[in-house]
Amino acid sequence: KRSNKWGSSHYIHTLVFRSLKRTHDMFVSDHAKSIAKDDQSHKLKLGVKLKADYSAVLHMPILKEVKDRVYQPVHVFVFSGDDPEYLITGTHAYPSGPGLALTADTKVHRNPSEAGVHSMALALPPSQEAIRTAASVTDIHRHIGGAERASALVRPSIMEGGTTRNSLVRKVPTIPKPQWHPPWKLFRVISGHLGWVRSIAVEPGNQWFVTGSADRTIKIWDLSSGKLKLSLTGHISTVRGVAVSHRSPYLFSCGEDKQVKCWDLEYNKVIRHYHGHLSAVYGLDLHPTIDVLVTCSRDATARVWDIRTKANAHTLTGHTNTVATVRCQAAEPQIITGSHDSTIRLWDLIAGKTRATLTNHKKSVRSVVLHPQQYTFASGSADNIKQWMFPDGNFIQNLSGHNAIINTLAVNSNGVLVSGADNGTIHLWDWRTGYNFQRIHAAVQPGSLDSESGIFACVFDSSESRLITAEADKTIKVYAEDNMATEESHPVNWKPEILKRKRF
Q1: C-beta of residue 319 within 8 angstroms of C-beta of residue 339
Q2: How many CB atoms lie within 10 A of CB 28?
Q3: What distance in Å separates the CA atoms of residue 89 and residue 490, rounded to the nearest whole number?
Q4: What are 399's strand-pairing partners?
Q5: In terms of CATH, what superfamily is 190-481?
Q6: Within the chain, what is the greatest distance between any pair of CA atoms?
Q7: Which residues on adjacent β-strands are paired with residue 321?
Q8: What DSSP letter does each residue of 187-222 carry, written as one string?
Q9: How confident is the model at residue 147 (pLDDT cuts 50, 70, 90)?
Q10: Which of 29, 122, 180, 300 is found 20 to 30 A from 103 (Cα to Cα)?
Q11: pLDDT of res. 92
Q12: Do the beta carbons of residue 221 and residue 228 sit within 8 Å?
């Protein structure tokens, strides 16, 4: 029994000590305690606060109480950022200036004497004549520094470097006024296709342009007269993309039949096929400096092809839905794609990998266009047109107002951005400010339904004086600037509130 008793008491003692140890470990650090104050950072913080909140009264004379209780002005220590230690005393019945240690002179605070009140009353500004003889302590406290505060509104303060600015009035940011652009008008309507005209491209010499259609043909048109020069057949489904090479006499086309073709325009026949896409090919573009072709498809990939060997150099994977548009440029990033998964991807051509993914759009991105002179680009979606800065895709601004599914974008060197939508409307924007200076809704071709008024593609010719659109009413429309228009006859109806943009 004795041994059992001894064993049980030892066990209980062990449990108690364990419980005490746990309690000690739990409460050894008091998390409610304030963090120890660092003197250097505290002085710096209060010095900055002093300069920010009390700069209007720092230049005032400092009064010190002497033994006979008469307040006299003493030496003024001017505040500087390097030496925040200075003295503030006077008739104020509250602690000395922030950030200052109490000294023998400042640790005892007394109410102002009668002599101190009168000496302070003499320092009131001239506008306070009526209360000079009957100024109370409260009045003195209220009016001290009033003259300086009032004059600060009109007196410019001297800044470092000798510049002046108003110390209290902030300059309101101004929205730049948009550049004036002459209006565009319908110049010519070209008929000839038997189906929706889905794609368009202009040759570098500006003599002719080529279109691809849902009637499975590719047609070449004379740019100056609008007459048909040639029809090419070979695709077995809608032709969704065409591109003319700047480096060789080749025409490239792609379609919903999964085929990508290279046409030799000297013989007007197909000389190469590029096999690999698993679904409809929606767009293509040529690299401006190397013999590389990039195509995008409904199979959620973009493929990089060597034009001469027909080799698939890269398969760009990462999008989760149809890749609707692709653009190439000589600078980094060399490939830009837009997809129905609402994202834009900037690709590293050498590695074949994504270098940036832009997720600002909320709906399908169907068109991307590069500015011909600036290092920027724009993307079109049903929610907004957005402008971006290369190389990292930094967001610039939204262009809101084209409330439709935007299928195509085009921009020229004069800063005219064109957006074409599924409902047949064309909006023209000032690139720099995002101001929508013109809206066009051309009538559909006679015999077509009103619903067949979509704009599927648009492009400026090489001179940038003509805008060519490919439309759902089976026509190609050519627009030109109104050379007779002036800024006086067509003023910019500019209102600053129009240009307020969401930035996200």
Answers
A1: yes
A2: 7
A3: 68
A4: 385
A5: YVTN repeat-like/Quinoprotein amine dehydrogenase (2.130.10.10)
A6: 121
A7: none
A8: EEEEE--SS-EEEEEE-TTSSEEEEEETTSEEEEEE
A9: very low
A10: 122
A11: 46
A12: yes
Residue type, 377: F
Angle in degrees, CA 481, 486, 487, rounded to 5: 115
Predicted confidence (pLDDT) per residue in 39-98, tens digit: 888 888 888 888 888 877 777 766 554 444 444 444 444 444 444 444 444 444 445 455
CA distance 198 to 193: 11
H-helix segments, 64-165: 114-121, 137-143, 146-152
Q: Which residues contact 470 (CB under 8 A, 6 or more apart)?
A: 197, 198, 199, 200, 211, 455, 456, 457, 458, 476
- Is 313 buried (19+), middle (13-18) or exposed (0-12) by CB count in 10 A? middle
Q: What pLDDT score was predicted for residue 151?
A: 44
pLDDT tens per residue, range 13-49: 888 888 888 887 777 666 566 677 788 888 888 888 8
Helix, strand or coil, per DSSP, at residue 114: helix
For the record, the structure tokens of 251 come out as 């025409």
Summarised one tens digit per residue, pLDDT across range 300-347 is: 999 999 999 999 999 999 999 999 999 999 999 999 999 999 999 999
How many CA within 13 A on the CB side of residue 177? 6
Within 211-355, residue ranges assigned H as helices are none
Q: Coil, helix or strand for 52?
A: helix
What pLDDT is attached to residue 158?
43
Distance of CA 134 to the CA centre of its chain: 61
**Residue 430 · residue 178 · CB < 8 Å:** yes
Q: Provide the pLDDT for residue 185.
A: 94
Tokens of residue 255, six digits: 């379609």
- In this predicted model, what pLDDT tens digit does every residue of 228-273 receive, in sequence order? 999 999 999 999 999 999 989 999 999 999 999 999 999 999 999 9
Identify whether the C-beta of residue 193 lies closer than 8 Å to the C-beta of residue 213. Answer: yes
CB contact at 8 A, 219 and 234 = no
Does the structure show a pLDDT above 50 at 118? yes
Closest by alpha carbon to 47, among 19, 13, 84?
A: 84
Q: Is the peptide bond before 173 cis (omega within 30 degrees of 0)?
A: no
- Residue 438 neighbours by CB distance under 10 Å: 16
Euclidean distance between CA atoms 6 and 433, whole angstroms: 90
Distance of CA 321 to the CA centre of its chain: 25
Distances (CA, A) of 285 to 197, 200, 252, 328: 18, 12, 9, 6
Cβ atoms within 10 Å, residue 245: 17
| Distant-in-sequence, close-in-space partners of 80: CB < 8 Å, separation ≥ 6 | none
The closest alpha carbon to 236, from 255, 262, 253, 252, belongs to 255
* 493 in Cβ contact with 444 (< 8 Å): no
Question: Given this model, what pLDDT does residue 498 score?
Answer: 45
Mean pLDDT rounded to a whole number for the chain: 81
